[in-house]
Amino acid sequence: MVARFKGQYGTGIREANTYLGQNYMVVDPSIISEVLRILRDREQFDYCVDVTAVHYPEREKQFDVLWILYSFSKNERVRIKIMIADGESVPSAVSIWATANWLEREVYDMFGIRFDGHPDLKRILLPDGWKGHPLRKDYGIIQQDQEWVKANLGIESGQ
Amino acid sequence: MGKGQPGDRERPIIMTDRTMFDLKPADPKRIDEKYLSHLELGEPDKTFLDSNELVINMGPQHPATHGVLRVILKLDGEKVLGTECVIGYLHRGVEKIAENRTYTMFNPYVDRMDYVAAVSNGLGYCEAVEKLLNVEAPPRAKYIRVILTELNRMASHQLWLGTHALDIGAMTPLFYTFRDREEILKIFEKYCGARLTTHAFRIGGCQYETYEGFERDVIKFLDYVPAKIDEYEELLTTNRIWLERTKNVGVISRADAIALGVTGPVLRASGVKWDLRKAQPYAAYSDFDFEIPIGTNGDTYDRYTVRMEEMRQSLRIIRQAVEKIPEGPIMAKVPKVIKPPVGEVYHSIEAPKGELGYFIVSDGSTQPYRIRVRPPSFVNLQALDIMVRGALVADVIAVIGTLDIVLGEVDR
Taking the domains of chain B in order of start, what are their residue ranges? Predict the structure, then answer.
């Protein structure tokens, strides 16, 4: 599979490796949408297990965005990873796997990463008016949107 | 004060002077714009002259939502045109907490996600960290894990059955299932002192050896409960009201189920024979014989039969595990301070509700750099909209019940 992708995209596939028996592939953000579609259609990764992100504030490309995929017919998992800078958006995978809808909303909610082409990108776990994205590393563990708490809960602090 | 005399012949039969009450209907447009505008809703049925769209709010404080789930329903009379779930009322930021705790300290937190199946959560987490550390729990610990996890699956399904049946209107099963679930909780309590948030496992194995008489208690339970499962089935399986309320209700096709990433009994009821315990065995599951029950129609009734059969299969697994349980240590050699090497790992298990996955990124320190929990309930809940479109309001209750969500896990 990796050979097929490398033949097709060359250096667009940055890295393809195995760690602890788990396969992962780092690809260029520009081709991610195509790669995901091919993974579903040609490589039969018909089940999108999870979409998530990791924040590395000290890196130039601050975010890793990950898709964990599974193929029922091959009984195989693969992780696809791209690296993007803060403020960059990612093409949405909702048209590929319907399950990506809420998962992408959660990534947006927690990290502030926007997904282009998402039908309804808004916060999912936090309230709509909340400011800040809690899973970014610069967001403190007891930090909260004081204004929102005051306005909506009528208390000084949620602590 | 109201106007007019009740005896006045000029007045229509419905006497209430509506101006008396300041009953302005909630502005549906406001909710519409906020929540429903993006949905491609069906058109209301124009056959009846008085057909009109109605937006109603269900929850978050609604007994049938099994916690604090808010569903905004757009209705045409009794027919559901579309739904929107509003979640997050129970959000505690578990993933953020994890980044600020050591691996060991975070272990009890995972129990608070799916709090009716705490043992499964702990198993998934411990195994994920073990994978990252490249250690394996000793065989005896694995067997103890399997026994407790399967007991917990049983307890989770019993709680599901009781509350689901109660939602639909059958009250008796609740008392029956809670009576029998108590026996499982007693075993947990004797084993580790806790009944619900058990924190039964540690990274590398189990902290406690089984107590004196553990096997005897488990066997006693195994002998006791099959007749009770038959009893639940007797109440429901051929009950006409139950059939009417569950057959062809909340149907989800195989293709939709896969596209929506639905897992667990919900996926299996749609005819996909897939169970992580078989597909990618973890703990000691490869040692045991058991079947994966599947359904054909993907309706609420099939999900019910799948879960009932799963309970029986769990009992089969537990019996084999108790009979074959090996002697030996229960803890692998793990360092006192857990410091996994730099790397990422994804590990998932078949929790009672579906695939529960942990994605852990380690930066080589004592605290995880990032933990992502892939919650089965969260993903399964997304299927609610597809499952209830075109159905009746009462079916929404049945479908929420049959999805078997736990809001602690949806919101984390």
Answer: 94-390
For residue B378, the chain A residues in CB contact (below 8 A) are 102, 106
Mutate one of A45, A70, A149, A152 to test the B interface: name it (highest B CB count within 10 A).
Answer: A70
Contact predicate A35/A8, CB 8 Å: no
CA B351 to chain centre: 9
Q: Are B353 and B405 in contact (CB under 8 A)?
A: yes
Give the Cα-Cα-Cα angle B314, B318, B319 (nearest 5 degrees): 115
Both structure tokens of B104: 């060991």
* Number of Cβ within a 10 Å radius of residue A42: 11
Q: CB neighbours of B200 closer than 8 A, spacing ≥ 6?
A: B118, B119, B122, B148, B188, B191, B192, B206, B208
Tell me, which fold does domain B94-390 have in CATH?
Cytochrome-c3 Hydrogenase; chain B (1.10.645)
- Judge whether A48 is closer than 8 Å to chain B, CB to CB: yes
How far CA B29 is from CA of A121, A152, B37, in Å, comes to: 20, 22, 9
- Cross-chain Cβ contact B344/A19 below 8 Å: yes
Q: Which residues of A touch B412 (CB under 8 A)?
A: 125
Closest Cα in chain B, distance from residue A74 (Å): 10
Which of these, B201, B186, B183, B147, lies nearest to B317 by C-alpha position? B147
Find the residue in B nearest to A120 (Cα).
B38
Taking the mean position of all CA atoms in its chain, how far away is CA B255?
21
Burial label for A154, CB within 10 Å (0-12, 13-18, 19+), is: exposed
The alpha-carbon gap from B220 to the nearest alpha carbon of chain A, in Å, equals 37
* pTM, two decimal places: 0.83
With CA atoms as reference, the chain B residue closest to A134 would be: B96
Question: B88 by DSSP, 3-state: which?
Answer: coil
Contact residues on chain B for A99, CB-CB shorter than 8 A: 259-262, 379, 382
Q: Are strands A63-71 and A47-55 parallel, antiparallel or unpaired?
A: antiparallel
Q: Tens-digit pLDDT profile for chain A (159 aa)?
A: 777 777 777 777 777 788 887 888 888 888 888 888 888 888 888 889 999 999 998 888 889 899 999 988 888 889 999 989 888 888 988 888 888 889 999 999 889 898 888 888 888 888 888 888 888 888 888 888 777 888 777 777 766
> Do the Cβ atoms of A97 and B274 come within 8 Å?
no
- Please name every residue paired with B347 in a beta bridge, in sequence order, or none if there are none: B358
Residue of A nearest to B93 (CA): A134
- Identify all chain A residues contacting B272, using CB atoms and an 8 Å cutoff: 72
- Neighboring chain B residues of A24 at a CB cutoff of 8 Å: 344
